[in-house]
Sequence to fold (392 residues):
Amino acid sequence: MITQRQTSLPPVVRLRYKEGDLIVKQGDYGISIYKIIRGKVRVFRETGKKETNLAILGPGEVIGEMAFLNQEGESRSASVRAMTDTEVEVWHPARLAKEYEQMPPVIKLIADQVLGRLMKINILIGKLGEVLQEREPIESAPETPASARKFYRKQTDLDCSYRPLSGASKATYPGRIKDISLAGIGMEVNSVTAPQVVHHLGEEFHVSTTLPNNKDVEFIAKVVDVRKSRIPGRLFLGMAYVDLSEDSRKKLGFFMMP
Amino acid sequence: MAISKVIYDYVVSEENYGDRAEIIQEGTKGRWAFLVLEGEVKVKKKTPMGWLTVDTLKKGAILGEMALVTRGECIRTASVVAHGPVKIGVLDIDRIIKDFESLSPQLRTLLGVLITRLRESMNRLAVLVAKAAG
Fold:
């Protein structure tokens, strides 16, 4: 799935998506830049259940440059979905940020001015778009087929603690988060040392952990998959977030950046 | 905006324009970039409803950035008109392109995308204004 092309940090990675997969989700945090190597993607804005198409992009084109250039820590302004099987090259922002700052002054001045003008014009476009939309609703894309969003899943091995939401007990139990995505986590638990905990499908747990960058995150997640771990007495729980605060989503977003 | 010496070093000649003089004409070819040295210019686009002022630029502003994407001659996306008396510095575009070429391919792509987006946004704004007026 991921091909690492460069060993020096931070790496450039290639990601593959199947038709219908979501590559960027509006509202998520992240400043990686994606260059389309192969395939075709649709860029769209979501308002409620409505999707307004902004662009269809193909090989050689770039996604996510505004979040990088803006660097205000703002969330993604639009979603991007693969229209065909697609391969993208992900440029880690740290690779470019240093070079961007050290560009020849004349190029830096041009880039800063172009960015400023572009943002000014885009605000005008947004305002005009709203006025026009009030007059006549802009045509929206038909509801997207319920394609499972494929998330970039980061392998990890983090200590965490979890507490069942059902039942009166406030006791917490140790677990290990084995992978994290922006949809949920994979958590290994010891069913022998926590016999009183029900690890069934649909159970909800409050989970808290500290990411390797020392950021604390906590969330509520629901068990959507239960498997026996390779280690006897342990279970591997596939969990989907039920309640993830904006702050935790942001921290995870930055941690998740490939 | 003050103009630093390092930027002024790129100026190869200076030109003066009177109020309302057209410095760049939309749709024509050109391979120069300009720096506003004194005064103010209006960036205008032709729309079916007439001229639309897209932006007003002051001292220190650089115009003609598309030349970086095309590496030289390009079709002007908008007109630039003097708003009062204006002094313009013609920039050494070959030297700027050389600076641009020294960047990594990724950064060049990124800046190219940024400049192209500005052109697209200006075109889109003109279309929307015409729609709103109609």
Remarks:
- The domain at 5-133 of chain B is CATH 2.60.120.10 (Jelly Rolls).
